[in-house]
Task: structure prediction
Amino acid sequence: MKKGKIRILVDRCKGCALCIDECRYKEIKMSKKLNNHGYNVPEFLGKGQCTACKLCSIICPEAAIEIIELVEVEQC
Amino acid sequence: MKKGKIRILVDRCKGCALCIDECRYKEIKMSKKLNNHGYNVPEFLGKGQCTACKLCSIICPEAAIEIIELVEVEQC
Amino acid sequence: MVIEKIIYKKPESLTDCNFTYCSGCGHSTVHKLIAELVDELGIREKTIAVAPVGCAVFAYDFWNFDVSEAPHGRTPVVATAIKRIHPDNVVFSYQGDGDLVSIGLAEIMHTANRGENISVIFINNTNYGMTGGQMAPTTLLNQVTTTSPMGRNSKNYGYPIKMIELLVSLQGVKYLERVKITSPASILKAKKAIKKAFLNQINGTGFSMVEVLSACPESWKKTPREAIKWIDEEVSAYYPVGKIKDIE
Amino acid sequence: MVIEKIIYKKPESLTDCNFTYCSGCGHSTVHKLIAELVDELGIREKTIAVAPVGCAVFAYDFWNFDVSEAPHGRTPVVATAIKRIHPDNVVFSYQGDGDLVSIGLAEIMHTANRGENISVIFINNTNYGMTGGQMAPTTLLNQVTTTSPMGRNSKNYGYPIKMIELLVSLQGVKYLERVKITSPASILKAKKAIKKAFLNQINGTGFSMVEVLSACPESWKKTPREAIKWIDEEVSAYYPVGKIKDIE
Amino acid sequence: MLGKTIKMPQETVFIKGNHAIVEAAIDAGCRFYAGYPITPQNEIPEYMSKRMPEAGGTFIQAESELISINLVFGAGAAGARAMTTSSSPGISLMQEGISYMAGCEVPGVIVNIQRGGPGLGNIAPSQSDYYQAVKPGHGDFHSIVLAPHNIQEMYDYTVKAFDLADKYRIPVIVLSDGLLGQLMENITLKKDQETEYLDMPKDWALTGAKGRDGQRILSLLMRPGALEKHNEHLREKHRTICDNEIQYECFSIDDDIDCLIVAFGTVARISKGVINIAKDMRIGLFRPITLWPFPYMKINELSKRVKKVFVFEMNYGQMLDDVKIAVENSDKIEFYGRTGGGIPTQEELYQFIKARTKGRGY
Amino acid sequence: MLGKTIKMPQETVFIKGNHAIVEAAIDAGCRFYAGYPITPQNEIPEYMSKRMPEAGGTFIQAESELISINLVFGAGAAGARAMTTSSSPGISLMQEGISYMAGCEVPGVIVNIQRGGPGLGNIAPSQSDYYQAVKPGHGDFHSIVLAPHNIQEMYDYTVKAFDLADKYRIPVIVLSDGLLGQLMENITLKKDQETEYLDMPKDWALTGAKGRDGQRILSLLMRPGALEKHNEHLREKHRTICDNEIQYECFSIDDDIDCLIVAFGTVARISKGVINIAKDMRIGLFRPITLWPFPYMKINELSKRVKKVFVFEMNYGQMLDDVKIAVENSDKIEFYGRTGGGIPTQEELYQFIKARTKGRGY
Amino acid sequence: MEERIIIAGSGGQGVQTLGFLLAEVGMSDKKRVTWLPSYGAEKRGGFSFCHVVISDQEIYSPYIESPDTLLLFDQRALNTYKDYVLNHTLVIENSSLIKEDTVVNGKKVSIPATDIANSILFTQAANTVMAGAYFALKTIFHVENALKVMRAVLVKKSKQIFEKNEKALYQGFNFIKENYQYV
Amino acid sequence: MEERIIIAGSGGQGVQTLGFLLAEVGMSDKKRVTWLPSYGAEKRGGFSFCHVVISDQEIYSPYIESPDTLLLFDQRALNTYKDYVLNHTLVIENSSLIKEDTVVNGKKVSIPATDIANSILFTQAANTVMAGAYFALKTIFHVENALKVMRAVLVKKSKQIFEKNEKALYQGFNFIKENYQYV
Ligand SMILES: Cc1ncc(C[n+]2csc(CCOP(=O)(O)OP(=O)(O)O)c2C)c(N)n1
Ligand SMILES: Cc1ncc(C[n+]2csc(CCOP(=O)(O)OP(=O)(O)O)c2C)c(N)n1
Ligand code: SF4
Ligand code: SF4
Ligand code: SF4
Ligand code: SF4
Ligand code: SF4
Ligand code: SF4
Ligand SMILES: [Mg+2]
Ligand SMILES: [Mg+2]
Result:
């Protein structure tokens, strides 16, 4: 299983909450924060369960979610 | 077999000749006459073979052919 | 004794004005059929026609019932409004292929889709007759016209539009038939189809359209006989005649 | 050691301007997909879009490639001309259902019939979003809108027009697919369909159109989630998704 | 719902301009409406979709402005009182249809809630369709053009539009704008009023040829001279209208004014405010209500009594043409216009007058 | 085929007005044409369907005038020289599109071979689209309007139209009529001429964002003040055009004329004939060639030198409005117009002048 | 020199072709020429006319109200244009199709053009017969000039058609020469 | 008496509703009233404003350039309208959403309307809080009058919603009474 995390571009987000439904690991949750446009935005929990599966970014209408894969590399 | 004759409303006729093709008894023939609009018009020959079948009037675009049935009636 | 019984004469619903169409023109035949039907159905006093812009714009000179003009292509729209105002009248639009398929395509489709209870008589002569025989969306492939001097090619102009086939999928449409008028038999069939379109309206069935493959000897540069032959051989090969939809 | 590899970010073909559409609006999703595809196909420098009059008129703020406006409904006409002038560019029209099915019905049909080698992205959200949610020819039966306060009834307004089914009979049309964007899986399918429409154009295949069933939470008075559900349950029941025509 | 009409005592209501149009049409006996959405007139088709069925009439949401105007043409030809509404780009699309109505002498009412242009422009109020209303599309014809300046007049002149349309068999345009369309104000409705020409017989209308020969609604006149004769008939009608139907308001015009403002619609209203604050100057307002027929004579007469004629519009000077025609001495005329949806304020008009009169008001 | 162009020695040809338009467009580098049939301009799309492919350009037979004008819009936006042609009712249908071209600053040429109106009218020549050409559709904009009066000018001003369109990014209308469209006359073609602005770079055109950010062709400007700013820019452009592009012809205007005729196009031609036969009167002709920008100043100046200003048109007085604006003293103006396809004859114009000047020519 | 000609008849009679021929002849003589057809309705057998002006100088109005010459093919043409005839107008009328002649002014010449054309078994050439008559009457052009122009156009199509037209032209020309002394 | 009010904020904050409420209160007091909304874009979270004029006499311009009262809901509203403030203008600003206050002229009153609304667990009622502040500051209307109008409209919808709004109204009213002496 890949490991990953996401970055929400808070000011692009419109708080539609569709990403939350999509994450089967419940790594995303609605927060109490309002962004600059007054939308209530979700936050990434970072429980370490994110697999960088991209589903949240695919459903996100706003292209507001960046997906980051965490790749283990040998130190050299 | 019914007997009939036709009357061509010469000034409605445009000389398209379609009626001529339609009469299987060849009762209609193109004449040398020009009507008031300059069209060369056909004439009814009256050979006595007309059956008032109406085919000529059906094909006539101009409603220029009247069909007359000749009905034998007992004198009284 | 022999008495003379007139069994056919020019219908009452025609005025005394001669048709001004070219010799052998299909408009004349269809005008005549419509007048005959209006007589036969006894609806002269409640018929309202909408004439198109096209050769048949002059229809109002020939029919002795109410006729309105309409801007080019908007013919079924004008008919729709008249029918909505006078639902008990018999209202039909009479349209050429330029009027109906080209500039008025949106109008006929929306009218059909709304299922307006009108009858549409559609005269397809595969060109713009009135303006001098230009290419229409209905022009056959390779047909030479004044704007397709090398013949219509599908690469630049696509394929001839089959209007009936296009309308068939619309639920609002109740009756579609394509006819020709090249012989007494086909003319009688055409008349029956138009009658059905009128009766559908009278019975409240809904939108009906009859497409008539119609001669334009003038633009086709053919004699009336040749024109009819061309319809039988070429035009109806591409545009098959017959009843395509009939929902009671 | 763990290094961070960004495997998805906002596509290059989007400007830094945030979408101004409502939360959960389908336009945003499709804009994003198109931008991703333009990046992936490496065609940003030769893509020319034509934006409609409708909510997506603002598309030109969001895409970082050339975009033209077009009068309401004439979108595919403008695209046609641009493509004819620049045949090596990738030209697509992006249109709402009001734009494409209502006022622009003749334009899309004639463009399709001419077989113009363009791609059409058709956003069907069953209403006029931009003007405040009025009934469109695509509005579902019984759907309440600001101009169908009692719900659309077929008697006065006919039936919702299935555009894809209407275009299918035109020979000039090469590819038609209806998609939805209600889940990651369906979004990926939608993306594939749009890609195919672009590739068809690049390969010279001809006219391609993809219809996207798209959420308009604002007019539907639904949350984004409810809107998506309504598409899955109601909208796509009437407008079945899938590939309807595909001629190579 | 916001902007919903509020009923007040004594038959008055607090109502939005767009809604007032609807009530007026229904009160005037209009039972056929067709329209296509466009901001800022959407409340008209929206409200109509409810009100017209209630009134037993036909509401059709047209699929385009071409369909709208041609539905109105057909309904008018059938003898009905019919209306469509739109805003600037949509009205441009109706130009052919309006010309047909004029040529065929089919009555009908067209409401234009103008917005900024050219092209798609924006949705803010504007008066930049003066030209296409008053100097219309192809052929020698005119529509009567009425320009209300408050919501009471949105109602009253819409009612009147139907009367004029029937009286003269002519298209009548109510030329309003986005501000008046959206504005709410108290007005008095005259419910179910008898309009003067409502029961006027329309023997020319198409109703079926019952007991008579078929009759025609047409504008094609191909026989040599026929169209010219028809146009002469139309011109005669135009002359009659010019003689009888000119309407205007003189506001604060007394014998010793130095300046005359000429303005219509929204800008006329704002100009009244200018006069109200410009206590230091002697200014009157002449407000044309009929833009066609245009009150040339009256303006000419008034212009002789003043030192300056100010023309204020929400465009770059369209009515200005007609004022120039009316005013003999062009040096007297000063124009100030805002465009693209800009609304001139009392203050800027006041300052403009001041600047052009060296502060003296003339 | 009748009406076929006949080549003459020395690069002159005997050519039909409608065909001259086609040759001019091709010679001016137009490689995109879209049109829909309508009499009396059918020879243009017909001849184009042959000539444009020969010239390697695109000919599209549009399925309506809406499609025509929007194809021209698209081709213009893509940087091409593009043209459409029609006649009056068809031009009415283009009003929205022309407004968009003006708003988006897309160049393009629109030829109007005017016919009688209103409505379907007839197919005889007319000048009754002056209004919709010169006082156009929605929004504050202008097209440049050129009015040729013979076949040489049908050619020359069509070529010029393309130059002006590109120079100013503006729609240009060639306002002709059925008589000039159908007339054959000897003219000189300037084959493959270099037009002044043919190679003008069009960085604003949509060609794909090669090495740059995406750019836009648009007219929607919703941000507060943005549209007004854009309109001010358009107005500046209009002013520049007014300063630089006014064209007219003074015919037989010398110091001691008593009467001035103002006429354009076909009627100007006939008016020359009037002057030719009216040896007993001292008459000059002022012929505006650009109808917008209109030569107000020159007419104003000339009008001061004469006792009468005659305005002759094939309509009920549309350019008359602009002449009234130009001429200070309205009592001097006498109007004679034929309409609905009527063509005024030399004789009737001559008699009219005589009657209005008590036979003295003034 | 300015010669203003109106030709009128019905669609199909060759009215426009005749006008065009005269225009070409004028041009071959290095004159300025305008040719203004009627348009739109003639194909339906309707009224057809054209205006041709041939001149040494700039031609102002190509639209003719006071014709120097009127070539009338049939009764309707005569009825329409009879009031245009001025004292100086030359009227050439096709007497085969004009029965009631009500023209009073002008110089009048009648020629049975249709009958002459029929007599050479080429009805369509009635217009060429009329042309022949015109050239016999108006000496501003040489009939040979006309023949040259006709040859250039017609020979391309068919030698036979040219020859028939040539015959028609001369029959029209000679008919006038034989029947009208005062020319 | 003429009171010219501009209200501004973002779509969804109840700007139009507040304007409409003030208009209704004016009417209930037998005044002439105009209400001019912004239209078209606000549903997309865009800028939203309305102009309300309440007067004893005919109202000329319903479009306001020199407001007597400005009700500003957020930073963008303030930025847009700060230059409209004249010496006599009363500015009521929602300090919950306005952080940089650059207004210099006029009489200024700050109230944390959004916070107050949140505190009664009804964020949507920020506009009613603002209304309460307005009625506390401008004595041309009675707050009871406003309550009556609100009751007529809201009770139809839900008693609970009315009660929350009533509470919001009074909290706004009282906040002013408690914090601003000069009123
Ligand atoms: C708006 C407009 N565009 C174009 C025309 C010119 N026009 C008149 S009839 C016609 C086409 C007629 O073709 P069709 O409808 O097929 O009728 P047909 O004459 O062939 O019977 C056209 C283009 C017009 N009158 N109005
Ligand atoms: C000629 C014209 N008519 C009407 C309008 C108003 N208008 C703007 S957008 C629109 C409809 C948009 O609906 P749709 O195409 O479905 O797009 P959506 O906003 O739903 O994405 C209308 C009618 C216009 N701008 N121009
Ligand atoms: S990438 Fe997948 S696992 Fe990670 S947050 Fe998004 S949906 Fe959840
Ligand atoms: S899907 Fe995107 S826009 Fe919606 S809440 Fe998640 S991050 Fe925000
Ligand atoms: S009725 Fe029949 S038989 Fe008689 S002429 Fe006509 S076609 Fe011949
Ligand atoms: S079918 Fe009719 S129009 Fe044709 S030739 Fe016979 S009678 Fe004449
Ligand atoms: S041109 Fe064609 S359609 Fe028109 S009248 Fe002649 S034959 Fe009929
Ligand atoms: S109104 Fe509908 S289509 Fe328009 S932006 Fe909002 S959700 Fe999207
Ligand atoms: Mg046709
Ligand atoms: Mg939509």
About this structure: The two ends of chain C are 49 Å apart (CA to CA).
